[in-house]
Amino acid sequence: MKLSENVVLSLEIFAAHKVRTILSVIGIVVGVGAVVLVVSAGRGAEKRILDRIRGMGTNLVVVNAGQTFIVAGRQRQMDTVRSLFPTDAQAIAKECPSVVAAAPAISKKLHARWEAEDVVTTITGMGAEGFQVRNFAIASGRTFDAQEARSAARLAVLGPTAAANLFGTADPIGQQIRIGKVPFEVTGLTASKGMDANGMDQDDLIIMPLETAMRRVFNVTYVQIVYAQARNAESLDSAEREIAALLRQRHRLEGKRDDFTIQNQATLLAAERETTRSMTLLIGSVAGISLVVGGVGILAVMLMSVRERTREIGLRRAVGALQRDIRNQFLLESGILAGVGGVIGVLVGVGVAFFTSLLGYWPTVISWPSGIAGFVFSVTVGVVFGIYPAIRAARLEPIQALRAE
Question: What are phi and psi of 195, to 5 degrees?
């Protein structure tokens, strides 16, 4: 028989057993749909995390005072270290060829007040160059300049969350707030940056000149962190090496353990990408098990079909059909079942991923390659699980088949 005739015959058989056909296809639909949805959700999570890391700054190298550790997925510092100073940032910017700018910073949660409003937010002292290094865009108003920063001016730039908590819908520009007992004039409002890689809200902060924060708010001489901007993405590793060598020399750490921790953006991006991809692969593999379950369903249906169509097989063999004709017919039927289930599964997975992202429940990135892979795998599973019933049907003897009830 021609391929077209085999396809028509297969469709007629499926139409005659609608319920059984639908039930056998559902397993494949669920498996392929789950794989597409999981991969799309995983890619969405990867994109969100990578965007957060990139949002921290461009070509960024982060120097933390002391040794930091990852606890519960977040970077933690076990104790207060007073080994990093603004002069270290100045030396990094001046003496490291791969670095174009360096911004020291110090942060702490404190109360901020405006009229009757009192909120706890992150108070960050930062040099004027920090806005460029950290990619802080200004939505309205202005930042403070280098001269104002050096003179410890009492100026503040608010993040959107801090501004909303303090002022509600009122315009904060030009207003006076108090942090502790120190009054500050609000000069600007930053554009939204969202969460950082540690899950912290980068918009819930108030930025002031570093000298002001150190002398008038925190009363310290050290900083917690230095943000250094490399010349380009290719210079990140060399910038990290140059900074490490410079700080070890400045801190006289010959033969001693580093009193700082350095991370560059490329390393963070690679680590986060690897983690999210591993999780996506793991969960996608678990979802793929349902494809195998769907294949078992096709195996059961095809074995049942062989039993029910024994006389048909015997008749076809009696009029000249070869074993390979019978085998190919049953393989074609199992492949069609799996292929139809695969197509519907891809459409279902893409649709659910799209509406999940559209409704804001979870960001997804539609993964057409995973859909194609899921479809190909579903057809492969259908054909593999159809091999045994096909061989069993092909081996039926014509005389015995015709005598079967």
Answer: -80, 155
